[in-house]
Every structure is written in C-alpha cells, then in structure tokens.
Amino acid sequence: MLFAVFQLPCLLIGLNVVLGTQLASAKIPNIVFIITDDQDLHLDSLEYMPRVQKYLTNEGTFYKRHYCTVALCCPSRVNLWTGKAAHNTNVTDVLPPYGGYPKFVNRGYNTDYLPVWLQKAGYNTYYTGKLFNSHTIENYNNPVAGGFTGSDFLLDPYTYSYYNASLSRNGEKPISYPGQYSPDVVAEKAFGFLEEAISDEKPFFLAIAPIAPHSDVQMGKHQFSEPKYAPRHAHLFKDYKIPRTKNFNPDMPSGANWIAKLPQLNDTVIEYNDEFGRARLRALQSVDEMVEGVVQRLTDNGILDYTYIFYTSDNGFHISQHRMHPGKTCGYETDINIPLIVRGPGVGVGKVLDAVTSHTDLAPTLLKIAGAELRDDFDGLPIPFTEEEKSKTEHVNVEYWGRGIPEGKYGSEGGGGFTIYANNTYKALRLIGDTYNLYYSVWCTNETELYDMTRDPDQMHNLAVPEQLSSEYKISGRNIRDVVARLDALMMVLKSCKASSCTDPWKVLHPQGDVSDLPSALSSRLDNFYEQQPKVSFSKCELGFIVESEGPQIPFVFGQGANHGGFPWQESSENQNPLGYRQDWSIWT
Ligand SMILES: *[C@@H]1O[C@H](CO)[C@@H](O)[C@H](O)[C@H]1NC(C)=O
Ligand SMILES: *[C@@H]1O[C@H](CO)[C@@H](O)[C@H](O)[C@H]1NC(C)=O
Ligand SMILES: *[C@@H]1O[C@H](CO)[C@@H](O)[C@H](O)[C@H]1NC(C)=O
Ligand SMILES: *[C@@H]1O[C@H](CO)[C@@H](O)[C@H](O)[C@H]1NC(C)=O
Ligand SMILES: *[C@@H]1O[C@H](CO)[C@@H](O)[C@H](O)[C@H]1NC(C)=O
Questions:
Q1: Is residue 76 one of the residues assigned to a domain?
Q2: pTM higher than 0.85, yes or no?
Q3: Sign of the CA dihedral running 385, 388, 389, 393
Q4: Gap between the Cα atoms of 424 and 549, Å rounded
C-alpha cells in the first residue's frame, strides 16, 4: 500500500505522458486545404508571401518538385479532387463538352470524389471559393456539388470578377457581393466555416479556394485582364520584375509548335507584363493574410498541432517566358511545377523535399491522413512527409487537350476577343532521378521536345530535333536517340494508364520487375526492344480526348512475343473501353 502511494505520483506522471501522446496521436487530424488559382512557383510568388513563409514553409515542408498534371484550372482540380488522371476522368477542359462542372457531374464524380469519401470517413467537410469552371449561377443547384457539410461556392460568370463575386451557400440562391474584394469575401467565409467546424466533435476538412492571382474577367468581355487587388495593397512591390531567366522573351525563338512562331515582345508589352506580375503579387496578399487568420484561429482553439495545412495552386503560370503573353496551358516548367507546402503532424519542419509528387497524389494523401482505406482506382500514391519515407517515383505524367490561351491586354489583341492558339494538345513527361532530370513532350502536330533540365532548366535547347538527335550529347551515358526511345515507350504506357500502371509504369513494359527506372531501362541489351516500340503520335489536333486521333495506344511488353522481344500489352478488357459516357445529359441547364 505504502509502496503504491509512493509510486503513484510518479506512475501518474508517466501515465499522463503516455496517455497524453497517445491521445494526441489517436486524435483524428483536421485538414485545411488552401488552393489558389494560377499561382506560379517560377515567377517567385511565394517569396512575396511573408505569412505563408512564416506559418507554412518555416513550420512545414516545401515540395520543390510538385507538379500539376494538366495546366488548366478545371481539369487540374478534377484531377486533384478525384485522384485520377485527366485521361481517366475525361474532364479535360473548362467548358462542356470536354470539361467543366457539368462534365464532372455527368461522369458520376459528384457522388464519388474526395469530400464524399472524407464524409464517409467521419469528417465534416467545408468548401469555399471556386470549385470548378462552368459551375454557374444557373446550374449551382442542378445538382448541388456533393459531399459538403457546408459550402459557399464562387459561380460563373462572376467567378473571376474580383469586385462582383456571386456565391451560393449550401445550395441556396446565389448572393452577389458588388464592391467587395473576392479573396477577402472568401477569407471571411473560410473563418466562418472554421468556427462552425471547430464547434463540432467531428474532425473537419476545410478547403479554401480564392481566385487570386487569376486574371480578372468581366462578364460579357472575352478578355483576361491583370488581376485586381485590394486598395490596401496597391503600394506594394513597385520594383518587382519578372525574373529575367534565359527563357525570358529570348532573342531567338524557343519551344516548338505555335510557341516557336511567336514574335519577340516589345518594351511596351514587357513593361505591361511586369506590372501584370505586380498585380498578381498584390492580389496574393489577401491570401497571405487569410493564411495568418486561419493559423491564428487554429492556435486560439488549441488545435493547430493536430491540423494539417496544405497550400497549393491548381496550375502554374508564365509571363513572357518563350515570348509568351501571360497564361498557362503549356507543359513548360513555369506552368506545371507549382507550389506545395504542407505542415502538420509528422511532417518535417522547415524542410524542403525533392520527392517527385503531383496533384494526382493529393487525394490519396488526404485519405491516408483521414485513416481511410485508399481506393484501388487511384492513379497516384500518398506523398512522403519526411526525408526518411521512401520517395515513390521518378515520373510525372502531364497531359493537355485544347487551345493555348494568351491573357492580358496584349494577349487579347486581335480578332474580337482573345487570340487563341490552336493545336495546343500534347502529352508530356517529367522524369527526375539522381543523375537525370528530363522533360519530354509530344505535340498533336507530332513535334517533340526534350530538355535536359539539369543543364538547361529554362528549356531553351530542344534535344529532340534531328541535328541534336544525332549529336554526341549524352544523358546518363547514352545517346539522345536511345533516351528518347525509352521516354516515348514510358509515355505510351502513361498516356492511357490506370491505377498501378500509372504509379509503376515500367512494370507494364517489364513485368518481371527488373526494370523500374530510366537507368535500368537504358541498358544497351534493351536497345532493340525500345527501338521497335510503337511511337506516341497524333493523327489530328483535337480539342478533347478523342482516342482515335491519338495514334497507337499499346506498347510491347518485354519477354513476350517473338521477333521484337515484345507483345502488345493488355491489362484487362476494361482497359480497352475505359470510359462510359452518358451522352444524354443536357449540360448547360
Ligand atoms: C454583378 O453581379 C450581379 C449578379 O450577381 C449582376 O446582376 C450585375 O449585373 C453585376 N454587376 C456588374 C457591374 O457586372
Ligand atoms: C508593341 O507590341 C504591341 C503588341 O503587339 C503593340 O500593340 C504595340 O503597338 C507595340 N508597340 C510598339 C511601340 O511597337
Ligand atoms: C503523326 O505521325 C503519324 C505516324 O507517323 C502519322 O500517321 C500522322 O499522320 C502524323 N500526324 C500529323 C498531324 O502529322
Ligand atoms: C494545326 O495542326 C495541323 C495538323 O494537325 C496543321 O495542318 C495546321 O496548320 C495547324 N494549325 C495551326 C494554326 O498551326
Ligand atoms: C471524352 O469526352 C468526349 C466528349 O464527350 C468524347 O467525345 C470522347 O470520346 C471521350 N473520350 C474517351 C476516351 O472516352
């Protein structure tokens, strides 16, 4: 007894510590997910967001090799919220028939995407801001976006009206906010939902999707103007200039296809473009303040330690690189390598990870955090949170269907609205390992691009042109031609991959598992196998995913079949007809 009494305080303290940590770790974490619109990494926007740095970058992990898989808002967001590649969702554009909210609904995702899964996992789910394009003041309740405990969505055609937003709360009739700054309106709504979420027992997921720093678009005008900012930020960044990298408005044309035909931008345009960049940074200040507001509220309620905060963008942005007007839609690094910062339980503090990750991986990551089972049809894998967790992969599969869209005053010149570059459909591949860092793309015109991103991060020297292909240039000790043969075969797998063939594409080519990255595929014993592979090509530039126009679909498999050491790959019969599509849904109503 005496013994017990003496031991008790000690025991209790010990127990307390054990129980305390167990309780903390057993507590299901909350998730705040912030997604901006068209925010770049390469124009240095994050460096102008001091609160994002203070509360997120310094307290969490920055993923320097994070990529979107489609450089366009709506397809990218559908990719993110479903965990599926755009070629599997077939939501490939901002508008019907190839994309937009109606297409998302039509494809059955409104009852089968992340917020729905999180609710099933016991979460309260909230969303404010822009969900998808073509989510309008007419179709907002037909049906209401699924899976949310609380929602307040920005709606077209006012989504990009910085001072005349229109939002529908919980499926109710839209309310207009004339004269109020849209990112501030969204911030206030986010704080409201946060309060609501905190007052309930359940863990919560809150997505905050302000439009900054997207261009301003006024109803009725087909013009993308520089973003508007709040008056309190007008004095900022007067000296900012877009980084003068080698690809900044170069003297010689660069890129391929329509980009290689662009005239050099004159001083008037460059001056305008720098100011365009400043306007973007100012618009982002409202988001920066919102981040502080969120962290403050989590802190005040004592829940910051078991809340994950994600910060990312739907896609990147270019301004003047490769002589382009402001815009996205391209496969170049400015458009696809985007911000991702994560803080939360078990995430490295003040770390930079070089793991190769993409938006396809985020739904699996969030479900894993929620303690839910991952889905068999995910095309990605949870991202690592620390250096120690094994980095999953070397590749990112990038795709695009449709047009190139120049923005800004000068991008809008010509022909009664904005000039649109046709033939912007392409496939691209980022492949990054210890000894190689490559970008490979095949356009719908059959033009190809290959950049050695270690030596040429600005993508100025296309190695996939005839004179380079036969040059002495070596990548991982092999000629360009041999490297391209491997990349093309990998792209052949990825362009129609599903689930494990997306996460482990080499396994499709080499089912025995002896080849699992570029260096092992580059073995000269495989030269013949790769040379014989059908090549990625297009017969036509389409505005959507018309499989008949996209050339061969199936690579040869090593070790099967006779003369070329390969055999056409067949995963399952489902793979042959991957997408059922209900043609009868009336989209614009
Ligand atoms: C602002 O939005 C409302 C609809 O929400 C619309 O009726 C009105 O015309 C818009 N005002 C301007 C100046 O565009
Ligand atoms: C510069 O280029 C823009 C866009 O093409 C054009 O509108 C403008 O007139 C040009 N300015 C000068 C000074 O040439
Ligand atoms: C691309 O190449 C393929 C295979 O050589 C050919 O069938 C197709 O017509 C070409 N497409 C275009 C747009 O030139
Ligand atoms: C688009 O590509 C097609 C080949 O698919 C070509 O015939 C046409 O000239 C191209 N159009 C433009 C505007 O570059
Ligand atoms: C994608 O959707 C478009 C538009 O409905 C359709 O024409 C196309 O066949 C679909 N693609 C696939 C691969 O199902």
A1: yes
A2: yes
A3: positive
A4: 14
